[in-house]
Design a protein that fits this description.
The protein has about 450 residues and is α/β, with parallel strands linked by helices. It is about 50% helix and about 15% strand. It has helices at about 10-20, 35-45, 60-70, 85-90, 105-140, 150-160, 175-185, 205-215, 230-235, 250-260, 285-295, 300-305, 320-335, 345-350, 360-370, 385-390, 405-420, 425-435, 435-445, and strands at about 1-5, 25-30, 45-50, 75-80, 95-100, 165-170, 195-200, 215, 225-230, 240, 265, 275, 280-285, 305-310, 340, 380.
Length: about 450
């Protein structure tokens, strides 16, 4: 056990050092309260033994600092001028024990031994509670699926979850990238910290920078006060960057600095702010292809792609469709509720559909069907969306660019036709095309189509 002795009298410091070393303790000393403040963070003791009356920083001030930074660290306070008032104050402010000088060596050693045992029990209790919370959270939020490709991805995620390594999750929209990120957070040592996320493709560049890195008052119109960014707000936890491939080059530079230096510069500021957060990023785009086109920084890619986890699309894990369907129907029924069941015809339709929207589309389709089924316990095929009941066909529009020029012509014409049919409604057009809205925006720009 490591003991930190703090006193402004050198003779007392030296004598206590001899006493504790003779009893088998590892001992660090600090001459005065100010030195004690510095030593607490550097030494990381198991017990602190400190005088109360010291010039500059008193023992009570040292105690207050310790209570804020390490509440489980026991502090034994000593004084030659004991009074009932000072003893009560010391105990009320969290001192483990209050002892009056002169004291016997055996008495101090016995108190110190009890303090060490108390510290050990508290730390063990906190560790057990954290482990219990981690297991409960992980079991509640475990991604659903038994297909081989999905199971391999889940196994890799569980392996790297307890580390602080940066993870890049790839996969099509709707495959459950954020669900997997939350699962990894629940399995990590950061489970007591926050889990925050942002969709990089959902915000304009100026707002995205402010949300990520924060801003200072007056840095732009509407910045009426200083504000911490999400990277700072996620202190001690996990930050999930969804659709990281949508970032502008300027924001990519700032993110790279944050990853390298573990600090951010708020918009309009000059001073840096340290960050302690684990980064998990996700994308449905081919970042290596974006690098070749000059749209994504290679150095940022390698910073993010320390551990790569790929989630397969639902069409490649069709064995999971019945399992996921049962899970979603049970979730809709609520705790203790009786879930609806699917008719054979409805299940056949689910198994036959291509699911361009993946797991998210499946959940939405089942929610719609459950609502339209009313009080009926069995979900019939007619309650499923039209696109699910239609005969399966090859998709004309995909996330990736077409492999040859003739297909580009066909894809462009198909997108234009759907956009016209939907009166320029991009959300509805994306749903019919079976792609994410952000993908549709890129296609519109790629082919030079009018958004109207």
């Amino acid at each position: 056990m490591k003991v930190l002795v703090v006193d402004d009298e050198l003779g007392i410091v030296e004598s206590l050092e001899v006493l504790f070393r003779g009893a088998g303790y590892e001992v660090e000393t600090a001459l005065g309260g100010r030195a004690g403040l510095e030593a607490v963070g550097r030494v990381k003791p198991d017990v602190v033994v400190s005088d109360i009356r010291m010039p500059g920083v008193t023992g009570l001030e040292l105690l207050e600092h310790i209570r804020q930074t390490d509440p489980e660290l026991p502090v034994i306070l000593m004084t030659a001028q004991a009074s009932l008032q000072s003893a009560v104050r010391a105990v009320n402010e969290g001192a483990f024990y209050y002892i009056q000088k002169p004291f016997s060596n055996d008495e101090l050693l016995a108190i110190c031994a009890r303090a060490g045992e108390s510290r050990e029990l508290k730390v063990e209790n906190i560790t057990l509670k954290k482990e219990l919370k981690r297991r409960e959270g992980a079991s509640a939020g475990i991604p659903i699926g038994k297909a081989r490709s999905f199971a391999d991805a889940l196994k890799l995620a569980r392996t790297v979850a307890p580390t602080d390594s940066t993870v890049l999750i790839t996969g099509e929209s709707g495959t459950g990238k954020e669900v997997l990120a939350k699962y990894m957070h629940q399995l990590s040592d950061r489970v007591d910290g926050p889990f925050l996320s942002i969709n990089c493709g959902a915000l304009p560049e100026s707002l995205l920078e402010s949300e990520l890195f924060g801003h200072v008052k007056g840095s732009f119109t509407g910045a009426v006060k200083d504000r911490d960014g999400l990277l700072v707000a996620a202190e001690g936890g996990t930050f999930f960057l969804d659709e990281v491939g949508e970032m502008s080059p300027q924001t990519q530079v700032k993110l790279l600095r944050a990853l390298q230096e573990r600090e951010v510069i708020p918009v309009g500021a000059t001073a840096t702010v340290p960050v302690n957060v684990r980064i998990i990023a996700a994308t449905n785009r081919d970042l290596e292809e974006q690098i070749r086109k000059g749209d994504f920084r290679s150095d940022l890619y390698y910073r993010l792609n320390v551990i790569a986890v790929h989630l397969p699309p639902l069409r490649e894990r069709r064995d999971d469709i019945p399992v996921l369907a049962q899970h979603f129907l049970q979730k809709m029924a609520g705790p203790g509720g009786e879930p609806k069941v699917l008719s054979d015809e409805a299940m056949d339709a689910l198994n036959s559909h291509a699911w361009p929207g993946n797991v998210r589309e499946l959940e939405n389709a089942l929610e719609r069907a459950a609502v339209l089924s009313g009080n009926r316990a069995v979900i019939q095929v007619e309650t499923l969306p039209d696109r699910v009941r239609e005969e399966p066909r090859e998709r004309l529009v995909t996330e990736a660019p077409p492999a040859n020029p003739p297909m580009e012509v066909i894809e462009r014409a198909y997108i234009e036709w759907v956009m016209r049919a939907e009166g320029g409604n991009k959300s509805r057009a994306a749903e019919i095309l079976g792609i994410d809205p952000s993908t549709l925006y890129r296609k519109i720009a790629r082919y030079g189509l009018s958004e109207s």
